[in-house]
Design goal:
CATH superfamily of the largest domain in chain A: P-loop containing nucleotide triphosphate hydrolases
CATH topology of the largest domain in chain A: Rossmann fold
Distance between the termini of chain B: 17 Å
Largest sheet of chain A: 6 strands, mixed
Number of domains of chain B: 2
Oligomer: heterodimer
Number of domains of chain A: 2
CATH class of the largest domain in chain A: Alpha Beta
Structural class of chain B: mainly alpha
Largest sheet of chain B: none
Order of helices and strands of chain B: HHHHHHHHHHH
Helix content of chain A: 25-40%
Largest interface: A-B, 24 and 20 residues
Radius of gyration of chain A: 19 Å
């Protein structure tokens, strides 16, 4: 299936995407004329203040919201179709593990629903636990794990069924900075090891610059893209790359983009 | 354990003291009357012992109730019509039937209310209204209807009355429990393309279990009260409710009080039993002990 896809075909392609919510206070323009192309293997970060539509865009890709205008394709299909084809795994801001299931049981949840055999479930659980460095924690219950470990388990859950896109909505937003640094490193390793396409929502500039090959800067009211930055940083990124001149330059450009978005808002 | 027992025992001690004082005060009237009729006078020191051992006291003191209770429980064969074990078992059986029926009804209604908006709008208000009708008024009607339908067994109307009281806490808690998963949890299952059935079995139902067990303690107590009320107007001769009524009608307060305490002990045992079931279930669901 994967091999038959044209390598050059974009994984996510949005053209003139619009989404308007009807609320009690009148229509809210959550996304306006969003154009974006994400290639296979990209690590794309979405950054911007709250209300800029970064999460909404990710939810559109996951078919959790439905655009009111424009076109959006995921792997060349509509988002709904892509979901049925298990195109993506989604990681939410909270780990959202079921307290009544063990870590292994939580990872088994999507596998059960998708109808994998017991033997294959066990084999996949082992593999993804190793991938997120939680080997040996399968029999623990969520409350026995720290917040960072819980979030890693939720990433393992999203990886378990081989979706080639990983959508992450501020996955480390609730964690402290030390844990966050460590998980950022791990996500990069994971990305290098699996070759997945990752969509990552954040409001941390260093996080966005450190992780991404492509940074999408957004601004609110109406939610729109103000800048798309292709990162020149190498794929191999030690944590101290954040002190390099290139890193600081990109971070500066992101900050400028955010400020510009705010400028015409007043 | 010691720290837990002390306050409970202290309160129990206070209750017993107040009870004795009240027994002296209430039963003394009879002693003074007797003395007046006999044309003698009695001192307070003579009154007190006489208030403790009357055949038909207005308020039997604790030791008389305890003795009667002991006589009822251990003093006869458990098959005897005078045995509180026998009557207690009849009430227990009725309670269990009503409890089971109430759980089935409460869970079934909750599931359909959460699943169908129409049920939410049509059934829920009636469920609430049903609990505002005094069960004492309703019980005789249920008996009459059961009779009309040709149901001879007293067990059925008793179970219905008991279920009528016990389904409600289960219903309310289960509705809340089945709705407890937040939007993120529901979205997660949506990303797996899970069906509504899978959402129910894998998320809503397990998430509702803590609510379910919390409601069982209330429901089992309600089922017991329902059963006892169901035993009152039936002309029933079996069960703790019937025993209480007999004691009251024949002016045998000791029988009434003993039955009352037997019912309280039964309620305590039932709640402890539900608590044990809850603890086992919670442990299996991975809740920290």
């Amino acid at each position: 299936m994967k091999d038959t896809l044209n390598k050059a075909a974009p994984v996510i392609e949005a053209k003139g995407l619009n989404l308007t919510f009807q609320t009690g206070d009148g229509p809210v323009h959550a996304l306006k004329d969003v154009n974006l192309t994400v290639e296979r293997g990209d690590f794309v970060s979405f950054i911007g203040p709250s209300g800029c539509g970064k999460t909404t865009f990710l939810r559109c890709v996951a078919a959790l919201e439905h655009p009111t205008g424009g076109s959006l394709t995921v792997n060349g299909m509509s988002p709904d179709e892509a979901r049925r084809k298990r195109a993506y795994g989604y990681v939410f801001q909270a780990a959202g593990l079921y307290p009544w299931r063990t870590i292994a049981g939580n990872i088994a949840l999507p596998l059960e629903i998708m109808g994998f055999s017991k033997a294959e479930q066990a084999e996949r659980i082992e593999r993804v636990l190793e991938l997120v460095e939680l080997k040996g924690f399968g029999k623990k219950f969520p409350w026995q794990l720290s917040g960072g470990m819980q979030q890693r388990a939720s990433i393992a859950r999203a990886l378990a069924f081989d979706a080639d896109i990983l959508l992450m909505d501020e996955p480390f937003g609730a964690l402290d900075e030390i844990v966050r640094d460590r998980l950022n490193e791990e996500v990069l390793k994971l990305w290098a090891a699996t070759g997945k396409t990752i969509g990552f929502v954040t409001h941390s500039i260093p996080e966005a610059v450190y992780l991404s090959t492509k940074i999408v800067v957004m601004s609110p009211r109406p939610g729109r893209i103000t800048d798309v930055i292709e990162s020149p940083l190498p794929k191999e990124r030690p944590l101290d790359i954040r002190d390099s001149r290139e890193f600081i330059e990109i971070a500066h450009r992101v900050r400028e983009g955010l400020r510009a978005g705010h400028g015409d808002e007043v | 354990m010691k720290e837990k027992a002390l306050p409970v025992l202290a309160v129990l001690g206070i209750i017993v003291v107040i009870w004795y004082a009240a027994a002296v005060w209430m039963n003394a009237t009879w002693v003074y009357d007797q003395a007046e009729r006999a044309g003698t006078t009695v001192s307070f020191a003579e009154v007190v012992p006489q208030t403790m051992a009357q055949d038909r006291p207005l308020l039997p003191p604790p030791h008389q109730v305890a003795a009667e209770l002991w006589k009822g429980v251990a003093g006869q064969a458990v098959t005897s019509k005078r045995s509180l074990v026998y009557h207690g078992f009849v009430t227990f059986r009725g309670t269990m039937m009503g409890f089971a029926l109430g759980i089935v009804l409460g869970v079934a209604l909750a599931v359909s209310i959460v699943r169908f908006r129409v049920m939410d709008m049509s059934v829920m208000p009636w469920a609430i209204i049903s609990q505002t009708i005094p069960i004492v008024a309703l019980a005789p009607m249920i008996l009459t209807v059961a009779n009309q339908l040709g149901i001879d067994s007293r067990e059925v109307p008793k179970a219905v009355i008991s279920a009528y009281l016990s389904f409600f806490p289960v219903l309310v808690s289960m509705v809340k429990g089945l709705r407890s998963p937040d939007q993120m949890q529901l979205d997660l299952l949506k990303t797996y393309n899970a069906s509504e059935g899978e959402t129910f079995w894998k998320l809503r139902l397990p998430a509702s279990m803590p609510y379910f067990f919390a409601s069982l303690k209330v429901a089992v107590a309600a089922a017991l009260i329902g059963t006892i009320v169901g035993e009152l107007p039936t002309g029933a001769i079996e069960g703790l409710g019937a025993r209480m009524l007999i004691g009251s009608q024949f002016g045998e307060p000791l029988i009434m009080w003993a039955a009352l305490f037997a019912a309280a002990i039964l309620a305590g045992l039932l709640i402890v039993a539900v608590g044990i079931v809850e603890r086992v279930a919670r442990k299996r669901m991975g809740v920290p002990a």
